[in-house]
Amino acid sequence: MSEHVLIERNSGVLTLTMNRADKKNALTQNMYGAMADAIKAAQEDSQIRAVVIQGSETCFTSGNDVSDFVNSPRSDTKSPVYHFLRAICHAEKPLIAAVNGPAVGVGVTMLLHCDLVFVADNARLKMPFVNLGLCPEAGSSFLLPRLLGHLRAAELLLLGDEISGQRATEIGLANRALPAGAAVLQAAQDAAQRISEQPPGSVKLTKQLIKQGVAQIAEQTMDAEGDHFTQLLAGPEAREALTAFLEKRKPVFANN
């Protein structure tokens, strides 16, 4: 397990808290592995009825840890990243997210696998894959257009613009926008507690019916995205984009 992921079980609810405040909860392989293992274990635990994924009152996650991210091959289906993505993709029990502050990259795409999403009205959601010379991941190139429609998905993925939690709620990326801080975390806990009190068989079947056929296509998309992602990560555009990011300058891309 990882010291940067806090795991709490209470009244039928499993809560996973990303806890790496000094790095804005940037995700490492160990963090992915810890969350994947906990989510998978929850599927076999009859006492757990719902899973909450959250950060702190000020930050959800800034996305992948850059050094960890560059040095870890994402095409490897045995990697912790893929264990986590498959765990949230195929989870039979409801997943609920509580999003305060920044949610970048996978911090947004993981929400597409959740059943309920609560955000701070001033949360900052962004998917800068194209900006970094990369492509969407976590099945988002399938899930996002399905959820928002082609035009809104293209706007978020092609431009990589940041949107607020309020805007995310307006376009259907989140259930409710709330005042930042404890209110967001509490809303997720309240929803999870309500689900934990419902008939578990009915909850499981209802989620299965809602997502019928979706998980399989999402996983296939995820695998294809992973192959492209790995190739792009080793390419000149990503190298220039990531170098420019670290050097705090505007990248310059050569014509293809």
Automatic annotation (TrEMBL):
Pfam families: ECH_1 (PF00378). CDD domains: crotonase-like. It comes from the Bacteria. SUPFAM superfamilies: ClpP/crotonase. Transmembrane segments: none annotated. It is found in: Peroxisome. InterPro entries: ClpP/crotonase-like_dom_sf, ECH/Chromodomain_protein, Enoyl-CoA_hydra/iso. Keywords: Isomerase, Peroxisome. Its main location: other. Gene3D superfamilies: 2-enoyl-CoA Hydratase, Chain A, domain 1. This is Enoyl-CoA hydratase.
